[in-house]
Design goal:
Layout (H helix, E strand, L loop, with lengths): L3 E8 L7 H15 L3 E7 L4 H4 L4 E5 L5 H18 L4 E5 L2 H4 L11 E4 L4 H7 L4 H17 L2 E4 L2 H11 L6 E3 L15 H8 L7 E5 L8 H14 L4 E5 L5 H10 L6 E5 L6 H7 L2 E2 L15
Parallel strand pairs: 1-2, 1-4, 2-3, 4-5, 5-6, 6-7, 8-9, 8-11, 9-10
Helix pairs in contact: 5-6, 8-11
């Protein structure tokens, strides 16, 4: 008997890179490899089906107002829910997109992947408190409805229990995996730097992060000022995109670090193994609520 799953994500990774979307995309690929029938639904463009090789479809564009997006999610999920009432599991990776179908689940097994408290993350990014309260209310309704919840760490399991009232026996810690083979290379550091156009005569610290407040890139830039006194030719490269770019650039300029810290912008996923090999060190700063900065060495 084939297991059928409806995997409700946020956005597809190639359209909106980020930790949650990366985990979601990789999980769908792995499930298919293991013979699990998956139907993915995300917010995005009509190109999602092609980009995901048929693993996911976009039920609405990002630009659609929230109420219309919720109605679109209900319409998109309806055929699957009707067809798989007895042999399907509904899996949520993002509470907002799962909320519209809660009333249709009835006795359907429902699993939540909890990647972090959405409302509290928004608060750290400066969202109004009323918006944060609305998000947390919605989150609680989704999480408490789940038969099982999956978290990457004990810390996030504790948040799920204490903040949202999910029973401990429903929470399961499944640590993230590492694609060791993909990131193993015999190429030299110099060869990788040549490919990327990075200098071969300077020590390099690489940071791959979204440019948002809660990951603490401001602290990394301040640390780079101290590091430069000890290692004058050090180069700190920050790869990623986000709304804080202009602010971070101003911070770099104010400290006179233009030759020490560089913002690379979006970095293609396919080039990450080369980038990590090219760097001398990797930095993963974080201020709070870090769900994905779990480093394996």
């Amino acid at each position: 008997m084939t297991l059928h799953t409806l995997q409700i994500g946020m956005e597809w990774f190639t359209e909106e890179p980020g930790g949650l979307n990366r985990v979601y995309a990789h999980l769908l690929h792995e499930l298919r490899e293991r013979g699990v029938a998956t139907r993915g639904l995300v917010v995005g463009s009509s190109d999602v089906a092609r980009a995901s090789a048929g693993l996911a479809d976009a039920f609405a564009p990002v630009s659609v107002p929230l109420i219309r997006r919720m109605h679109a999610m209900r319409r998109a999920a309806r055929p699957w829910l009707r067809a798989h009432r007895t042999d399907g599991v509904v899996v949520s990776h993002f509470a907002l997109n799962a909320f519209p179908i809660l009333d249709r689940l009835r006795d359907q097994p429902f699993v939540v992947h909890f990647q972090g408290p959405w409302g509290q993350e928004s608060l750290l990014e400066g969202a109004p408190r009323m918006a944060v309260m609305a998000k947390e209310l919605l989150e609680g309704l989704v999480y408490r409805r789940a038969n099982r919840a999956i978290v990457l760490s004990e810390a996030f399991g504790e948040i799920l229990h204490t903040r949202f009232g999910v029973a401990r026996e429903r929470i399961h810690v499944i640590p993230g995996g590492v694609e060791a083979a993909r990131f193993t290379t015999d190429r030299s550091r110099t060869a990788c730097r040549d490919q990327l156009g990075w200098p071969t005569d300077r020590p390099i610290v690489l940071c791959v992060r979204r440019l948002v407040r809660r990951v603490g890139l401001g602290s990394l830039i301040q640390a780079a000022e101290v590091l430069r006194r000890l290692v004058p030719d050090v180069l700190v490269l920050i790869a990623g995109k986000g709304y804080l770019r202009a602010e971070l650039e101003a911070h770099i300029t104010s400290l006179g670090l233009e030759d020490t810290v560089r913002l690379l912008g979006f970095f293609p996923d396919a080039d990450l193994p080369t980038a990590y090999r090219a760097a001398d060190l990797t930095a993963v700063p974080s201020v709070a609520l870090e769900g994905f900065g779990l480093v394996a060495a």
